[in-house]
Design brief:
Blueprint (H helix, E strand, L loop, with lengths): L2 H16 L4 E9 L10 E10 L4 E10 L2 E11 L5
Antiparallel strand pairs: 1-4, 2-3, 3-4
């Protein structure tokens, strides 16, 4: 799996959780172990910080498979006001 595909999966994971009106403001992905056909990658996320004034949250996402951590990502997401 290349970095563009991994970016897409991480983005989709975050926006599925945050909702259709969320906007990704910043995305940084570091690749680690390979993710090959037939492997299963499980994504988990953790909110690190929320800026109430700007309605932006910072999230850490980790994608692991049988080889270890394939992706470690930092994502900043703007949420709709009042979310």
């Amino acid at each position: 799996m290349n970095v563009l595909t991994t970016n897409g999966w991480v983005s989709r994971y975050v926006t599925d959780w945050a909702g259709p009106n969320a906007v990704i403001k910043k995305l940084g992905v570091k690749l680690g172990a390979p993710n090959v056909p037939g492997d299963t990658m499980k994504l988990t996320g953790k909110v690190l910080q929320k800026d109430e004034e700007q309605s932006v949250i910072d999230i850490e996402v980790i994608g692991k498979n049988s080889w270890g951590a394939h992706a470690t990502a930092s994502v900043s997401v703007a949420l709709p006001r009042g979310a």
